[in-house]
Amino acid sequence: MKNKLHEILLNAKEAIFRYPLVLLMSAIMSLAAVMLIEDFLDDSFILIKIMIVSSIGISLMFALKIFSQRREMNFIPEILGILFLVGFYFILPKNEDDFTEFYAFLLIPVCILSHLLVSFVAFMRRKYLEINFWQYNKNLFVNFFLTLVFTGVLTGGVLLAVLAVDNLFNVGIRDNLYGQIAVSLLIFGSSFIFLLFNETGLDFLEKEGKYPVVLKFFTQYVLIPLLCIYVVILYFYSGKILINWELPRGWVSYLVLAYSIVGILALLLVHPLKENTDKSWIRIFSKLFYFTLIPLIFLLFIAIFTRVLEYGYTEPRYYVLLLALWLSTVVAYFIFRKNPTIKFIPISLFCFGLFALIFPYFNAFSVAKRSQKNELEKILNENNLLVNGKIDFTQEVPDTVAYEIADKFEFLHKRFEKDYVHNYLSEEMQKDFPNAYYWSLPQKFSKRIYTRKIQADKSYLNLVSKTSEYDLQGFDRLVILPDYQDTPVAIDSDSLRMIFKNGDSPEYKLLLNQSDSLNFKGFLEETFKKYESEEPFQEIDEISFEGDLGKYRIKLIFKSINRSLYNENQSNYWYERPVILLKTK
Fold this sequence. Notes:
Blueprint: H1 2-18, H2 20-38, H3 45-71, H4 76-91, H5 101-120, H6 130-169, H7 175-198, H8 202-205, H9 213-244, H10 252-269, H11 280-311, H12 315-336, H13 344-358, H14 364-382, E1 386-387, E2 390-391, E3 396-398, H15 399-413, H16 418-422, H17 427-430, E4 447-449, E5 460-465, E6 477-480, E7 489-491, E8 494-501, E9 507-512, E10 516-519, H18 521-531, E11 537-540, E12 543-549, E13 552-558, E14 560-564, E15 573-576, E16 579-584
Parallel strand pairs: 3-4, 5-11
Antiparallel strand pairs: 1-2, 5-14, 6-16, 7-8, 8-9, 9-10, 12-13, 13-16, 14-15
């Protein structure tokens, strides 16, 4: 027992001295998570940014350490990695309000690229044997899953032990402590365990070993049969498209990509068995797989360009198109190359991803912004909405067009194009949109035509107000509620918000300062009961409700509201942003 403990301590010491910067990144991330749970800083967004950067740093520092071991360069690559992470931190916005989905389309690819770098950074030269490359990645793959099991058991065991002490001895442990223990073990603990499995690093990971029986069983009896099911479904769907001569659904792109990526993963997992004469099924699968992808790639391109030609490029569509181009490259490489290497797969994907992030003019963000600007200009010109370069809100416009303009405005605003979109608005109207909240922009059109029709099967009852102008007679002011329900609106020193909750325990009320409330559930039920025997789409004079809320007299007005008729016993209402007229009593 004493010798075993000494061995564990020695391995732990070696891991600390061999991977100091990897452990530093995981320690920083763990500490930031603990402080976030503790609400240590008033500006918690700083901690979130530290967590994001350090999470990327864990995989990046490991990749650079492996590279240093291969090239015997000591700490030079890791120092450059630290400088990159510091610079990356300052790329992130200062304020949480500016942290839009734009940054998700930056951070997710960067995270993927840092992990891809781990897979090939030590094998970029041709002289390194492919079997060593496979053994290296196989060992990383196995160690990753072992780490998940060990970390899960360790975290669960420690939390149960703390819970037992708390309940048996009445210690009074704070609830926050459970979360802090969990994130510490899941982040720092998992990193440490993973490094222990990797032992001496590159020399240990790339040495030859027996093919894992579990891996062979998983690939042969689980992964490949699932792929066969997927490809049959996709081929039948392709046949349906040809027979009916219809455009493919957008989500088929993700199914094709899933089949392709999982299939490539399966081929990588069984790569050493390909030359084994006893495993003819692997040779057959390896030869046929890339040929099965050819018609699916055509289907993928049709699905992508159907969406792009109709709505323009966005970052997700750009990335899907990029993956389709990468997939085409991989298929061509493995079909026409006489002696292909599996190293081509991660290296080529890394290059495509790097291109999407940093290549001038053609990167994902430049293409998306340029495309959406063109789409916006096209909409405005086709509907004759521009007068002297400004949007004329007195023009008659379908509501679908109004909402499409609002969507383009919001998209471009979140991509740092506020000046561009505001150039289409008068100076007075610009004041109404200090942030990217363009949900009320359609209401600015005085002649908006409601064109959206609900399904003819009467599964919905949709009520639409005929008026788009609001008479303030008898009231002091008009308040437009936010896009998201339960979001407070400031009225002088008061706070007003709307609770709109569907489901088994529905709530529909206005709440003032967390104390006074005005329930309008009965109004909704009576309104829809009045019109439920009529057509599924109805225009009525006004959809409004009046009542007293604290010191105010309130009038709640909906532009449109609909109810699902699938389940009569459960409330399911949806609304178009309402306005509130109010006066002090």
